[in-house]
Write a structure and sequence with these properties.
This protein is α/β, with parallel strands linked by helices. Helices cover 48% and strands 16% of the residues. It contains four helices and three strands; from the N terminus they run E-H-H-E-H-H-E. A three-stranded parallel beta sheet has the order 1-2-3, with helices on one face. Helix 2 runs parallel beside helix 4.
């Protein structure tokens, strides 16, 4: 018998998120992550790579403007999401 494909939880990110903490808060809320999830990128990686229930689809809308708003943190976050998608088969990341 074929297993039904589980629907992915989609997390929409956009340029209204002005710092890493705001991105983290969006992920915590959308993915029902524990409140104790740290506010730095290492802690975010730890919880997303091990504790977040998949499948997960992360879409960053208006990413060019977000790059301007977030500065260097934007590239760090994009790298984290690309690495996460490479590490977990049930995670996708898209810049829109």
């Amino acid at each position: 018998m074929k297993r039904a494909r589980e629907k992915a939880t989609t997390v929409m990110l956009d340029a209204s998120l002005t710092d890493v903490a705001a991105v983290r808060d969006r992920l915590v809320s959308a993915l029902d992550l524990p409140d104790w999830t740290g506010r730095n990128l290492d802690a975010l990686w730890d919880v997303l790579s091990t504790d977040a229930k998949g499948p997960i689809r992360i879409v960053w809308k208006d990413h060019r403007r977000a790059a301007t708003v977030l500065g260097p943190d934007y590239r760090r976050l994009v790298t984290l999401f690309h690495d996460l998608a490479a590490a977990r088969r049930d995670v996708t990341f898209k810049l829109a």
